[in-house]
């Protein structure tokens, strides 16, 4: 299994990770607001189909870098599928007048580990695909670090390095 995301179709990227289990623990890191803030973003997640999702990206919460009050980005959406602890799907605002994309998290136990597959679809351009692939790659590495009780690397240098790599490997 490659750590790199793969293009599924012209508008979809898929990233897979094998993570330390159990599945309920990984699910908690996807859905508990405080745990999610340590690897991805804080913000509301109404835990039912039709619920609201807010992502408030504060890099300081991930790695301790920068100003704790600074918000790097905000995204919102709606929960489209809620099936604990195996499936979460929600829309992801792309901003402006573009249609929302869709993020799907699928979890499967593999012995004492968990296979997490993140599929981000309805991406409007190759540039957005490069940004999304490098972002998910970075954040999922941070998730693995948290699950393995390690401190993650610095955010911006890692993201920029991966963005350069994805720029060369994505079609």
Automatic annotation (TrEMBL):
Pfam families, A to Z: AHSA1
Chain ranges of the Activator of Hsp90 ATPase homologue 1/2-like C-terminal domain: 22-148
CDD domains: SRPBCC_CalC_Aha1-like_6
Similarity comment text for this entry: Belongs to the AHA1 family.
Name this polypeptide is given: SRPBCC family protein
Organism (species): Nocardia aurea
